[in-house]
Amino acid sequence: MGKIIGIDLGTTNCCVAFVDNGQPQVIPNAEGSRTTPSVVSFAKDGERRVGNVAKRQGVTHPESTVFAIKRLMGLAFESKNAQKHARLAPYRVVKSDRGDAWVQIGEKLYSPPEISAMVLEKMREVAESYLGEDITEAIITVPAYFNDAQRSATIAAGKIAGLEVRRIINEPTAAALAYGFEEKEGQRVAVYDLGGGTFDISILEIASGVFSVKSTSGDTHLGGEDIDNALVEELARRFKESTGIDLRDDRVALQRLKEQAEKAKHELSSSLETEINLPFIASDETGPKHLEATLKRSELEILVSEIIDQTLGPCEQALTDAGIKREELDEILLVGGQTRMPMVQSKVADFFGKQPHRGVNPDEVVAMGAALQGAALAGEVEEVLLLDVTPLSLGVETGGGVFHKLIIRNTTVPTRAREIFTTSVDNQSFVPIHVLQGEREMAEDNKSLAKFELAPILPAPRGVPEVEVTFDINADGVVNVHAKDLGTGREQDIRVVVSSGLTEEDIKRIIEEAETYKTTDEKRRVLAELRNAAQALLYTSERAVEECRELVAEEVIVQVEADIEALHQSIDDGDAIAIKDGLETLELSAYKIAEAMYGNVEFDAPAKGEVQSDS
Ligand code: ADP
Ligand code: MG
């Protein structure tokens, strides 16, 4: 069996890890970074980039750079969160045929799982090139509060990226695993996760190797980026004060400023002072302007103290929901890159009344925990039993549009509930069932998972037929429904379909598209390389013709000139095979010039792609 890698598919960054000799290890990407921005950018010619390159294009090409796609996973277009994201994101968010929130780039529509798949594929490549083997299986992490649709969308993304998702696990659970908590008995742990754009707090109970998430809370629009923005505002304000120029009006300048602000923020996590230098950031009649600033850690702290305080309300809420007092907590775990900031650590320590646990890189723990779970499933390390809770209640719609809960939130999964349904009029031939997830009283205010009809029901007076419906939530948090007519004994599996917004056929089509995309990509690369080689040969051949015209037999020159002409034509046509042929023909005829010049030397035709030395 191959390796099962662990992937932290973050809103801002992704991280991939595997287990080597029982130890989880993060795999660095080609640029040497241990995390990769979850950003995809699309160029005009359809070429797409993922990671750092894509992130850099964010401000200059905002409408074709997709970031924070995780926020749209499994959401209906009309939902409050999708609407909010649509308002804030610089790329277009549109409504798909089925009512889901999708992304439009140019003319093309992309579902959120497709975009996430591009990021996952990049992570798979990172792992494959590092490990030197094909990777086909992964554990992917999601926030503990992700509902059925969001989890299914994540599984779909994995599938599109060519990964079988062996298990979906909750991010705080993965973090606790990486911190080695399965070894400790009867622990109550708070996982404080401040990432780039989201804040999550979860309270976990760990006993006999069983992890259960007791409660979760947070803020889906609060994170490191808010700190970057505050810093950008401050630097732009200072610059305007001294030069009168507003950098916020210039996209390129703003992009440079943003990059530097984030870098300065990182530096201030370990030093007390840092320099920001942006030469030629702007200019006016008096000439070019440079931004030079010194920033102290204390200045940054004053600027963003309030932002960090906003994480404390949800912490309070999570404790209340879990029914646990602060002093009853055994450990506080820090997760998310932003918790590297000393002020975050001290505010967390003050709030909980104890020092948070240290020792693991906060932006890597989640991927490491996922890798450990992967190794457990692969039988490489001892199996750890993971139990999570369902973040939302599951139920059905009953008379008058009321939501009737069958499994209440914070129930440990896997779990199951049964309910007997019957008819409300005489001789009713089917029973309609509407499955929903959420906490609101009225059905319409909750997330609809599926609508289906139990049929056929034998003719009978109302209230007589009995259909038992079983609702299962599996270890991934995904819902399954099964029905049994107690009269006839007939059973029926109901597919709670398309909660990811994509059908199996959709997924298949997208995978096929991605394959063609790969082949066109490959073709494009081959063509570019051939063109390059052809142009180099054309250059030297044209020079040779010019210099040796008088010194070589005329028919040789005529032939070379004809071959040059033909190769130019093939390049213009963009036909790879013709270019290759033309290249070989010209090579042979051009050698004749050299042969004539240097006498009858034996020429070894150079192998393709080899550079000839000067000797
Ligand atoms: P997510 O879970 O949202 O994908 P991460 O856990 O990777 O995100 O956190 C990303 C955030 O952490 C970014 O805002 C980044 O600037 C911030 N960050 C990373 N390293 C540091 C550091 N050394 N000091 C302060 N913030 C940091
Ligand atoms: Mg994260």
- List segments where confidence is low: pLDDT < 50 over at least 5 consecutive residues: 601-615
The main β sheet shows up as: 6 strands, mixed
Q: What is the name of the CATH superfamily of the largest domain?
A: ATPase, nucleotide binding domain
By CATH, the architecture of the largest domain is named 2-Layer Sandwich
* Oligomer description: single chain
Structure keywords:
37% helix; Nucleotidyltransferase, domain 5; binds magnesium ion; 615 residues; 28 strands; 6-stranded mixed β-sheet; Substrate Binding Domain Of DNAk, Chain A, domain 1; 4-stranded mixed β-sheet; 4 domains; disordered C terminus; binds adenosine-5'-diphosphate; alpha+beta; Actin, Chain A, domain 4
In short:
The chain has 615 residues and is of the alpha+beta class.
Task: Give the SSE layout.
Layout: E1 4-9, E2 13-20, E3 23-26, E4 36-37, E5 39-42, E6 48-50, H1 52-56, E7 65-67, H2 80-88, E8 92-95, E9 101-105, E10 108-110, H3 112-131, E11 137-142, H4 148-160, E12 164-170, H5 171-178, E13 187-194, E14 199-207, E15 210-219, H6 224-243, H7 251-267, E16 273-284, E17 287-296, H8 297-309, H9 312-322, E18 331-335, H10 342-352, H11 365-377, E19 388-389, E20 394-398, E21 402-407, E22 412-413, E23 415-421, E24 431-437, E25 447-454, E26 467-473, E27 479-485, E28 491-494, H12 504-548, H13 554-573, H14 576-598
Parallel strand pairs: 1-11, 11-12, 13-18
Antiparallel strand pairs: 1-2, 2-3, 2-4, 5-6, 5-7, 8-9, 9-10, 13-14, 14-15, 16-17, 19-22, 20-21, 20-24, 23-26, 24-25, 26-27, 27-28
Helix pairs in contact: 3-4, 5-11, 6-7, 6-8, 12-13, 12-14, 13-14
The structure holds adenosine-5'-diphosphate and magnesium ion.
